[in-house]
Amino acid sequence: MVVPDNKEIINKFDFLIRPYLDYLLSHPNDQINLTSDPLRITNCFSGCINSSTENQMKCDRFTLKIPYAQQILSWQVIFDASNLKEPPDFIFDAEDHDFHPPLADINSLVCWDWQNRESLVAVVTELLEHYRAYQLERIDSNATLQKHLRSLLAERPASMQIIVNRAERGLGTLNCLMKVAVDFTGIPTYLVPDNPGPDGATLHVCIPYPASSSIQAQLYLSPSVENAFGGSSKLRIPAFQPGMLMGDYFATVKGLLENQVRLISEGYEKRKDYVAAFISHMGKAVLEYDVQSFSKITLLWEWNDFFFTFTVELPLYFPMDQPTFILKSVYHNQNKKPYTEKYSDFPYSPRWSGNEMVKRASAFVLATIKDFQKASVNHSDK
């Protein structure tokens, strides 16, 4: 789907060019873009000598802004409105003045299909492959960066973008963006109900200069994965330790993500078992429970003619994270709401079975209910 701003820009082009741009901007391609940052078209104009208003509106050249390795490539794309059956020409960034991809080896240019709307995407994809090879050639001049690269390639990242910037003397900052191939299918579907797009994780590593020991890293999660993990604050990647190679760090982050998926999947099954154990032991007392995520169950209990509800809230990372118990009086209000107390400090072990946890929870309530009843009377609204 093309967003309104892009549609307005596309409509400025010759009608034979529009399908290429529409496909380029509306079909995500992880061979071109590894992040959610969009491709952008700027500086569109017509190369026609005739300056009539009609021809001015039929643009045939533009600057393509490509998010690449956390930087922006600005490539000029030049069609010829008088001969649109021919492939476009490209002018690359001035900083990459020595980037001369072998055009004869770029199949999508040699075999340009002007009737295929995917043709421009194919050309850009191939050019970026050559651009990566061009950047990798710079690494050959530095032994430290060579070690980082060899270790990273050994881990076989699904996709990779890399830029080695030049400095006044030698090489400067290295930015590397890598797709982390993790199987996210183990995440329960209820955690991504709104279908916010494909699952994915991308790791960015920045080396300020080849000999730097202060290497920075940042992990980017797709909205669906971030939501499933409980927010960005729930997953903290380790610092890049001095002496560590990029490949080792990549493997560490990948293992961390895989473990997180496992914990979420196991947590769902454990919560399900916990709720099932309560239903099995005390089915008649169950008022309600969450049938989707199994994160909550409420029961109506009675002790010496005192009725109260007992609620268990189970966290996302249960059983590693301890549940919360909530007692609520049926009779007494505090500030015009049912008198309630929450408990998070009680005997607990994540190794207990669901049946054992139910028995322990029942024992806790029996040991606590007398004091709760007194408190509900003493602190209730008068």
From TrEMBL:
Which keywords appear in this protein's UniProt record, sorted alphabetically? Apoptosis, Cell cycle, Cell division, Chromatin regulator, Cytoplasm, DNA damage, DNA repair, Mitosis, Nucleus, Repeat, Ubl conjugation pathway
Compartments where located: Cytoplasm; Nucleus
Give the GO terms filed under biological process for this record.
apoptotic process; cell division; chromatin organization; double-strand break repair; mitotic G2 DNA damage checkpoint signaling; positive regulation of DNA repair; response to ionizing radiation
Give a GO cellular-component term: BRISC complex
Q: Which Pfam families does the entry link to?
A: BRE
Entry's transmembrane regions = none
Q: Please give the InterPro entries that the UniProt record associates with this protein.
A: BRE
Name the job this protein performs: May play a role in homeostasis or cellular differentiation in cells of neural, epithelial and germline origins. May also act as a death receptor-associated anti-apoptotic protein, which inhibits the mitochondrial apoptotic pathway.
* Family (UniProt): Belongs to the BABAM2 family.
Record comment regarding domains: Contains 2 ubiquitin-conjugating enzyme family-like (UEV-like) regions. These regions lack the critical Cys residues required for ubiquitination but retain the ability to bind ubiquitin.
Q: What name does the UniProt record give this protein?
A: BRISC and BRCA1-A complex member 2
Q: Which organism is it from?
A: Elysia chlorotica
